[in-house]
Specification:
CATH topology of chain A: ABC transporter involved in vitamin B12 uptake, BtuC
Structural class of chain A: mainly alpha
Low-confidence stretches of chain B: 1-5
Strand order of the largest sheet of chain A: 1-2
Largest sheet of chain A: 2 strands, antiparallel
Helix content of chain B: over 70%
Helix content of chain A: over 70%
Number of domains of chain A: 1
Strand order of the largest sheet of chain B: 1-2
Strand content of chain B: under 5%
CATH class of chain A: Mainly Alpha
Number of helices of chain B: 16
Oligomer: heterodimer
Mean pLDDT of chain B: 84
Order of helices and strands of chain A: HHHHEEHHHHHHH
Shape of chain A: globular
Low-confidence stretches of chain A: none
Chain lengths: 297, 331
Amino acid sequence: MRQILIQLLISGISAGCIYGIISLGYTLIYNSTKLVNFAQGPLVMAGAMLAHLFLYRMKLPGFVGLILDIAVLSGIGLILKFGIYDFLKRRNAKEFHLVITILACGIVIEQVFALTVGKQQYSVPALFGNGSSISFPALGINVYPENIILVVTTLILIIGFYIFLNKTRLGLCIQAIGYNPQAATLSGLKTSLLVTITFCLSYAVSAVGGLMIAPIMGATSSMGASLGIKGFAATILGGMGNPFAGFAGGLILGLIETFAAYYISSTYSPIIAYAILLLMLIIKPSGIWAEKGGKMI
Amino acid sequence: MNKQIKSSNIIPSSAVCVLVAIGLIVFGSISKDIYIRQVLSMIGINYMLAAGLNLLFGHTGQISIGQAGFYALGAYTASCLETKLNVPFYIAWPSAVIVTALIAFLLGSRILKLHGHYLAMATIAFGLIVESLTTNWIQVFNGHAGVYVRSKTLIGAFLTKNLFALIVIFAALAFIISNNIEYSRIGRAIKSVRENEDAAMSIGIVHSKYKVIMFILGAAFSAVAGVMYAHLNGIITPEVFNNATSQTILIIVVVGGMGSNIGVLLGAIVITALPEFLYGFADYNILVYGVLVVVMQLFFPKGLAGMLQSLVRIIKKNIKKDELPKTSEGV
């Protein structure tokens, strides 16, 4: 009984870290542009598929694959920033034009990967270890190295970005352009450059996320949609604009989902995340740990 | 002045619509070509879905990426009632629309206070919940095996045979209703809500009321489309009503032209007929849709309708050039 509980706790936490890392991608772009990146799911999928290409098909060493993965996704980020975001902002397009265009970009990314790499589920080797689990006889449980890597990486990223956003000059500048772009521009901040940096950072986080998630869930071209929505559910649950809030939301969501799948029914477990998202949007769209000074949604 | 000219267009365009509908019905009853009738039926169904979303999104400015949820509710309610409970069609079809509208009312009155991204996400969540339910609640919805649709009453069977005419009639009704709404008091109210909610509120337009009404109407249109689809196809499976369908409905509205009835009709024709021309490249369908939307959004934000309008304007300008040297034209 206790073993099952611990095993569930571990898989819940690792699912939570997956959602937390996706939520971090949302939070970064939201902080600088007040924009919800609807292509987040497909981007994480792109990270996972690239990990499959680099690590499994080309058999590159882990760190080279990681760097290449980050480079490619940052490149996509630059294309989206300069080709789409700037273009639409210059035309003073309404919010929903941005929503639709980015959504369509997500569809394009998804289809490009589906058509070039393939539509099956692909396996991706973990960054470390030989694929066998590490057992802890004292607790009577087995843990796969990819889960440990995921949890550690997520914690490092969340804490790192919290410090980056709140304690460094660059991070504060990024938050400033999110609060009031005009005032920030008037105070001499290079708004466009800062937005470019956040796009690249957010997409790099998606790359890392995809690379961490892929050994656990495998890589499919269709995994993006549900991951994107669940990541957003975590973000809304915790609260927009704060890395820790999104991570906490992810943990809550992952634990609820895992325990409900075991104790209630595994067929309905995807509905739980969607229902939590819908309920949170109805009851308290600003999240449990609401962002300070944020506008009412 | 502009508005008066436009509002005098309602009756002619409705008359044209009725004539086209009659022509199509006659064509459908004469023609033996099942393929063309099938494509035309799908255009009609997609038009109904898109017209519903256009009322909500194009005219009122409230995004929804969960229309497939209502589409599914309409289709599943009607076919479960008819097939599993032997309810005659004249009760089953209206109750499908009423159930969908009721759910839309309950949902819409809660989520329409959200804006932009949040509303989009809430509607996506709704669509996904319906999709998961229809997939996983096997006792009621049969999961991936699908629900067979049988109309058992006498007139029901007759209607199922002449479904093409019925779809044309409903699509024409959708067109006329959208047209009438656009140029009515409600139409002007929802347009003001789209342009500026606070300003609309200040002149006494309660925006939450109009948003919910349009949400319900959009859902009801989708439910009718769902009922029609279920009877056209004979079997319904959850894959038809998934998230990609919601996106396709949105794509039809965006490609056709937000807030333009004729534009949405054009969009429905293009998006539905496109796969028929890309037959050998079935895999590339969705990619083409995606690229189309990005290009349209970047260069023609008003969609096909906007392209048509500017074309008409250029032609008119060229004709009038000799008579009226007009320099300042309002954009």
